[in-house]
Design a protein that fits this description.
CATH architecture: Alpha-Beta Barrel
Largest sheet: 8 strands, parallel
Order of helices and strands: EHEEHEHHEHHHEHEHEH
Strand content: 15-25%
CATH topology: TIM Barrel
CATH superfamily: Aldolase class I
Strand order of the largest sheet: 7-6-5-4-3-2-1-8
Distance between the termini: 15 Å
Number of helices: 10
Shape: globular
Number of strands: 8
CATH class: Alpha Beta
Oligomer: single chain
């Protein structure tokens, strides 16, 4: 059975006090009602990883890692460091990393390799630009991203992978793929996973990330191949984030 996951990506928001307060509110909300069937994850900025503890209720994720194991890379953070701070997950391949920092599929593949080596589960992001969807290339783009991410891994390793489909045109724009559009791409991603993993592809959680809000989460999460969400702006508000979790 696939895990249901709601992960909050804080991006470059919050200060230390606000972050701790937000996590406390989320934890209190989860205590009020048992949600054992939903895994809740928060991905704060790097400086907060040392002050926010992973717990049974809320797991900790980094937003990125470096593609090399160690070395003279000033300003970067190694996967082994994330593991030492108790990170259970790490986001890789986010469209903002690709767009603003020039991250390539090859670098992202290296990151996944190191994360798996150190026992940190990758949350691998893939998704198309607006012009790629409008030109009918969205399946081709996502297929290339998936194939690049999976290259060189055994299916046993890929059972530790979480995939997040994020149509770039729906991130922070207020636009959202329709439930039918999202489901169509999630089913396509699972089909591509099955080419490598066989029936085990049914065990991989695929999250939707693209302006998920309390008012659309239920319809999105009710789709067959949508196993949760990678949440941006709505994860910065405890009430909204808890409402999205409650959508299950």
């Amino acid at each position: 059975m696939r895990e249901k996951i709601v992960a909050g990506n804080w991006k470059m928001n919050m200060n230390r006090e606000d972050g701790l307060s937000l996590v406390s509110e989320i934890q209190k909300g989860l205590q009020r009602e048992t949600k054992a069937d939903v895994k809740v994850i928060v991905a704060p900025p790097y400086p907060f990883l040392g002050v926010i503890d992973s717990s049974n209720q809320v797991k900790l994720s980094a937003q990125n890692c470096h593609q090399e194991e160690s070395g003279a890379y000033t300003g970067e953070v190694a996967t082994s460091m994330l593991k030492s701070f108790g990170c259970d997950y790490c986001i890789v391949g986010h469209s903002e990393r690709r767009q603003y920092f020039g991250e390539t599929d090859r670098y992202i593949n290296h990151k996944i390799e190191l994360l798996l080596k150190y026992g940190v589960k990758p949350i691998y992001c893939c998704g198309e630009l607006l012009e790629e969807r409008e030109s009918g290339k969205h399946f081709e783009v996502v297929e290339t991203q998936i194939q690049s991410a999976l290259q060189g891994f055994k299916k046993e390793e890929l059972l530790n992978l979480v995939v997040a489909y994020e149509p770039v045109w729906a991130i922070g724009t207020g636009k959202t793929a329709s439930p039918e559009q999202a489901q169509e791409m999630h089913a396509f991603i699972r089909e591509k996973l099955a080419q490598v993993m066989g029936e085990d592809a049914e065990r991989v959680s695929i999250l939707y990330g693209g302006s998920v809000k309390p008012n659309n989460a239920n319809e999105l999460f009710s789709q067959k191949d949508i196993d949760g969400g990678l949440i941006g702006g709505a994860s910065l508000n405890a009430t909204d984030f808890l409402a999205i979790i409650d959508s299950f």
